[in-house]
Amino acid sequence: MVYIKRQLGQLRQHFDLWSIAKQEQSPFSLDGLSRAKMLSELSKLSFIIFLSLLLIIPLSASAQHSKYIQAVDEYRPAPGQYVNDVPEYEAGDTEADMIRKCNERIAGLGPIDAHLVALGGWGGYITFHFDHPIVNIPGQRDFAVWGNAYQEQTNQVFGGMNEAGIVMVSKDTNGNGLPDDTWYEISGSCDVDSIGKVIYGYEVTYHRNPMGNIPWTDNQGNSGTIDRINAWHQQEYYPEWLPDGLTFKGTRLPDNMIDLSNTVERTWSQWYYVLVGFRYGYADNLPNFTDNADITSYNIEGCGIDISWAVDEQRQPVTLDHIDFVRVYTGLNQKCPAPNWWGETSTEIISAEDLHLEASLEAMGNQETGIRREGVRREGVKEKSPAYDLKGVRREGDWGRKPSILIKDGKKYFTK
Ligand SMILES: [Ca+2]
Ligand SMILES: [Ca+2]
Ligand SMILES: [Ca+2]
User: Fold this and answer.
1) Confidence check: pLDDT of 272 > 90
2) Is the pLDDT at 225 greater than 90, yes or no?
3) CB within 10 Å: which end of the chain, N or C, has fewer?
């Protein structure tokens, strides 16, 4: 770079000489020697700039992009025990404030550093984008959504705390930077493993009931409630910033809760309910790591999504070369019958990741999304407090390994 600067300096001197010559006489009066020297310096400089660009461009393209979520576009959770809490609603917050709070928890962060965002009961969703389109590489999983699912401790079933969220993808076809284009659902393993048990075209409407159980009705003639679990969560469970009568539409996955209470010592646990995992194709369904003791063992197989699994409203496969937006919504409508235990099943996400950043950038010609960036404010993010287990062992970044009681800021809380 120093050499380029020096060359530029010399070239500027030659141009200065030339312009003085132009002013004093005619442009053609620059003597042949000066002109030849200047042209030689010019070609030397062009060659050096060309070489430098060759070296710099491939490095800077991926360095300027992140494989993690750039920003959240929509956050509309259904009612639930973690709603208004992760992230926290404060009086007067608008939807834009809640989106900003989601960004503070997950934008630009991997699963170790980010914080959970809760989607509440069935249908509640979040929409987000990356700083580049994610390309669909044939035969490969293209992105992963990380959550806090884990394997239950007695290993009696596959999974154990599997609150599957359905994943949707979309292209910014109209190029306006907004997620207002056609959405396609990712067809996960239930579509082949649970034929006849998945409800497509499902709808649920929730109504406010301040500080009480939240009533819902669905389009199948059923009704029920999202129940308060005051022992764990004392705040209002209906998303305070959203209107009454929220209606969500989509696919309902088959209930996956099993009562294993009779298989464990009552001294160890009064109840033992587990949520059995589905094989693939969902968020918050399988653990982020294949080996709990190894935080580099990312579970690509279990949490990765292949864009080629996308289907249209008729459940017919669609061909997408890339996607610009991802949406995740809670896919299960069930609650634990034991009082004050798990409560409703709700998807949580902690991060999402382009599994092949370099390939996405290369395939898209290093193209950035045209998607607006406002709402991404990393500065001013509160330092997170560390969490400790009851033995005093620090557990920050340890979400989703085991259900446990943790202590944070001097308060006990329960992870599920
Ligand atoms: Ca793919
Ligand atoms: Ca759009
Ligand atoms: Ca979860």
Assistant:
1) yes
2) yes
3) N
